[in-house]
Amino acid sequence: MSIDSPAASPASPASGSARTLEATPARALGEFIRAHRERLSPEEVGLPPGPRRRTPGLRREEVAQLCGVSPTWYTWIEQGRPVSASAEALARIAAALRLSRAERAYLFELAAQRDPAEPDAPGAGAAPETLLQTVELIEAPAYVLDRQWSALAWNAHAADLFTGWLDGEHDRNLLRFTFTQPLGRALIVDWETRARRLAAEFRADSIRHLNDAPTRALIDSLLATSDEFARYWGSQDVFEREGGRREFNHPRHGRIAYDQITLKPAHREDLKLVVLVRL
C-alpha cells in the first residue's frame, strides 16, 4: 500500500478513549505535527495568504500539497490513526514544516523511523578535533567509539589498560577484541556475563543502522568467528548501554576495578566517549 494513499479508513476512536490515545506514539506524532503546522503562515512557505482563516497556521491540505501526499493520508497522520509512514514521507513533512534539527530528530523518534538524512557512519579519524583533545586531557583511561564500536581515539591510560586492543598494532574494534581475541577474554573479569551484556547493548545501539553495510559486515564477521557471539546475538536480548563497575585481570597491574562512564557528544550521537575512573 502506498504511504500516500491509505486503502481503508480505520475506525474513529471513541470519545471516551481520547485521553488514552494521546499517550500512544501515533497520537503523539500527530499532535507534534499538528502543533508545528499551526505555527507556520502561508507566506513562510511561499503560499498565497488566501481568504481569512478561522484557525492559525497552514491548512492540512496545504501541508499535504507541499509534501506531495494525499490530504486524507496527511489528515490521518495528524489524527494519530494507525497508518504507515515511510521515512521518505516523514522527511517531506519535516521539510514542509521547516523543522529544526532537534525537532526533526524528535519527529523520527516518535515515528520509530531512521532519518534518511542522518549522516553515514564516520570513518577512522573522523572524530571532531575537540573530542580528540578532550580524550588526551582526561587523567584516566578514556577512548572514543564510532558507530561500529571501533576506537577512533584513546589516551595513554587506555592503551596501558587495554593490552591487546589499544596498545600496539591491533584491530581497534571493541567487539572483535572481546569475542575473538584471547587477550580480551583473559583481561575482562567475569567474561561471559560482560560479553553477553555487550552483545545485547550493541543490538540496542545499532538498531537504527542495523542494515548499514559496515554494521552488517561486522555482525556477519562476528557470527562467523565467535560461537559465543552467535549464541548471545541469537538470544535477541536488548539492553541499554550502562555504566558501573568494571573489573580487569591486568597482566602487569593485577586485579583492578573501575567505574565506567559513557558520554555522547550533543551533535555526534554516533560517537561515544568512554571514561573509566579507578575505584
UniProtKB/TrEMBL annotation:
Per its record, what are the GO molecular function terms?
DNA binding
Stretch list, region Disordered: 1-23
* Annotated Gene3D superfamilies: 3.30.450.180, lambda repressor-like DNA-binding domains
| Annotated HTH cro/C1-type domain residues | 32-104
InterPro entries attached to this UniProt entry: Cro/C1-type_HTH, Lambda_DNA-bd_dom_sf, MLTR_LBD
From start to end residue, where is composition biased (Low complexity)? 1-18
Protein name per Swiss-Prot or TrEMBL: Transcriptional regulator with XRE-family HTH domain
What organism is recorded for this protein?
A: Paraburkholderia bannensis
